[in-house]
Amino acid sequence: MPGNPVLIDAHAHLEAVEPVDEAVRKAAAAGVGKIVAVGMDLNSNAKTLKIAARFPEAVLPAVGYHPWRIRAEDAEQCIQFIEDHLAGCVALGEVGLDYKVKVKKPLQRDIFARVLTLARDRNKPVIVHSRFSYERSFQMVSSAGIERAVFHWYSGPVEVLEQILRQGYYISATPALAYSRFHRAAVKEAPLERILIETDSPVAYQGKKATPANLVDTLKSLSLLKVRPMEEIAAATTNNAKRFFGL
Q1: Which one, 73, 150, 188, 208, has least CB within 10 Å?
Q2: What is the rounded average pLDDT for all residues in the chain?
Q3: CB within 8 Å of 18: residues ≥ 6 apart
Q4: Exposure pattern of 101-139 as b/e (b: 16+ CB <10 Å)?
Q5: Residue 131 DSSP symbol
Q6: Domain chopping of the chain, boundaries
Q7: Does residue 55 surpass a pLDDT of 70?
Q8: β-strands 126-129, 59-65: how paired?
């Protein structure tokens, strides 16, 4: 997008995008100059840091422990890795709760609470997964004293969204904005100054796997939803991401 701010993909699982070199190159060609690469467990965190080291100008690392990946036998090692490497990352993430997966809820909440404490103590923003756990996820983030949080791909109740916004937190929009009724409703309600844009690559949207270059699809959908020019949406969301991640 010539003449527009360099876009920032606020959430991508780059360690699962292949070939990653091509994905980064195509993203840059599409106007996506920065990609926040998020980790999910010990293995993906390590891979994410290696990718960020290969592309220091383009890839910003975050380390996390996704609720889908939590295993009691691996928990201490993963939390220790996060503690050891969080200082060199732009955020903690992806972390949170997911009440649709089979991982026991008390274990999820224990892990989430522990990593939130690490983020608070190091003044790092948090990238929150909150599927089917919107209210509890918000309460835990807020109670932990987190100053900056983004509720990734938020598709939950407007009542919880209002609490998120009152607390000064953000939500993120994905390519699902083109068709997801609940995601559209939440993003429409949120003010532009509290929205980040992302791809969640390599998630598939309507059968097509995303790469960071597909951030332009999110941008277009957000522009249509907000009935505002793409250039304005691009400038606002880029500034939001810079502020949120401290860039």
Answers
A1: 73
A2: 96
A3: none
A4: bebeeeebbebbebbbebbbeeebbbbbbbbebbebbbe
A5: T
A6: 7-245
A7: yes
A8: unpaired
| Residue pair 214/201 in contact by the 8 Å Cβ criterion | yes
> What is the pTM (predicted TM-score) of this model?
0.96
| Interval 15-39: pLDDT, tens | 999 999 999 999 999 999 999 999 9
The CATH architecture one would assign to domain 7-245 is: Alpha-Beta Barrel (3.20)
CB-based contacts of 27, cutoff 8 Å, min separation 6? 9, 33, 35, 58, 211, 212, 213, 215
Instruction: Give me the pLDDT at residue 43, please.
Output: 97
134 φ, ψ (degrees, to nearest 5)? -60, -50
The residue type of 88 is G
Half-sphere exposure of 106 (CA within 13 A, CB side): 0
- For residues 192 and 51, what is the distance between their CA atoms, to the nearest angstrom? 31
Q: Kindly give the pairing relationship between strand 208-209 and strand 204-205.
A: antiparallel
